[in-house]
Amino acid sequence: MRSYGQYCSIARALDVVGDRWTLLIVRELLIQGPCRFTDLKNGLPGIAANLLSTRLRELEQAELIERDEAPPPIATTLYRLTEAGHALEPALKAVGLWGMRYMSTVDRQDTFLPQWLAYAPAWFTVDADPEAPPAVVQLDVGDAHAVMEISGGRVETRVGRADSPDLVLNGPANAVLGLLMGVIDLDVATQIGLTATGRRDVLGRLRPIAEIQEPTAHAS
């Protein structure tokens, strides 16, 4: 493992997780849970199998992941995060929030998978009206489908479809996620292809976490 050779916690962290693909492997294990090699490769479009094997070996050596040999009928190796690996979740959320400023456009070559549609609202939005009745929002981006369940101050998500959602948001990824993350408003989202069907008032309950985080005070 290469090292910056600096006695600095940021440099030491990047010694371990700074290589390309490493944090995205952690992302997949956080949102999917224990994964087979094939599950990870499918969740990381563009990664070569030999590079994924190398990164998994490095993460195992750094004690961020561990292997489980699943018994029949699965009978395969599962990769899971260790406690140290799970401790990276706040860092990934912070990076994701920072990266929202670059999410206004979608390149034609960009891949978009259902699990990414599912995790983003759960990580980056909150229920602003905990006393309101539960509500369900269906999110559809091409072949990616996810469900948001809003209740009691919490936003929970899963891949799939809802039977009777209160609201359906359908459109390109930058329109659906841009609206939910507070990057754009409903008018702009509609202009770039969003269709909102059902109770639009439900959107008023969703508050992007970035809006409620207070700026850090700096000593003068």
Architecture blueprint of SSEs:
Blueprint: H1 9-17, H2 22-32, H3 37-42, H4 49-61, E1 65-69, E2 77-81, H5 83-86, H6 89-99, H7 114-124, E3 125-127, E4 135-141, E5 144-151, E6 154-159, E7 167-170, H8 173-180, H9 186-191, E8 195-198, E9 206-208, H10 209-212
Parallel strand pairs: 4-7
Antiparallel strand pairs: 1-2, 3-9, 4-5, 5-6, 7-8
Description:
With 220 residues, the protein is α+β, with helices and mostly antiparallel strands. Helix content is 38%, strand content 20%. The chain contains ten helices and nine strands. The strands form three sheets. It has a five-stranded mixed β-sheet, covered by helices on one side. A hairpin with a 2-residue loop joins strand 5 and strand 6. The longest helix has 13 residues. It starts with 8 loop residues before the first helix and ends in an 8-residue tail after the last helix.
Provide a brief overview of the structure.
It contains ten helices and nine strands.
Mean pLDDT: 91
Strand order of the largest sheet: 6-5-4-7-8
> Hey, roughly how much beta strand do the residues contain?
15-25%
- Element pattern in H and E: HHHHEEHHHEEEEEHHEEH
Task: Report the radius of gyration as a whole number of Å.
Answer: 19 Å
Helix count, DSSP H or I runs of 4 or more residues: 10
Biggest sheet overview = 5 strands, mixed
What's the count of strands? 9
Q: What separation lies between the terminal Cα atoms? A: 40 Å
- Poorly predicted runs of 5 or more residues: none
- What fraction, in percent, of the residue positions are helical? 25-40%
Multimeric organization? single chain
Helix-and-strand structural type? alpha+beta
What is the general shape?
globular
